[in-house]
Design the sequence.
């Protein structure tokens, strides 16, 4: 499974390749992963709070509802009352996805990505 997940991640994020070790370390830290041949979501819960670590859909399968489905499954399977995530301020498509699913911007992390791009911290109360 991990080799397929690494390959899928590289298709979704060509400039941010994760390795088998990255996913293994996330799982060891308590992260959960849901994956299909076209998309994946990685999240972790601590107490009543959860964090979406990453979500990706292959470029040729985007805008088909896969990301929405992954988010809904994750929300049903988690134990938290709040879900947080960071999204690049210039990633308008991802922000629209999260807003459509009830997430709201609650803060900004200046120059969070590569020391250049701000991150919007988003939250959803369950």
Sequence:
């Amino acid at each position: 499974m991990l080799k397929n997940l690494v390959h899928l991640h590289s298709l979704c994020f060509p400039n941010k390749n994760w390795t088998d070790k990255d996913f293994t370390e996330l799982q060891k830290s308590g992260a959960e992963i849901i994956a299909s041949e076209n998309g994946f979501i990685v999240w972790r819960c601590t107490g009543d709070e959860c964090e979406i670590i990453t979500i990706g859909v292959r470029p040729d399968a985007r805008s088909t509802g896969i990301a929405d489905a992954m988010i809904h499954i994750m929300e049903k399977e988690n134990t938290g009352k709040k879900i947080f995530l960071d999204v690049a301020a210039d990633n308008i498509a991802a922000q629209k996805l999260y807003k459509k699913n009830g997430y709201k911007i609650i803060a900004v992390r200046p120059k969070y990505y590569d020391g250049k791009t701000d991150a919007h911290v988003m939250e959803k109360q369950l």
Summary: The helical segments are 2-12, 20-28, 66-77, 92-100. Residues 9 and 21 are 13 Å apart (CA to CA).
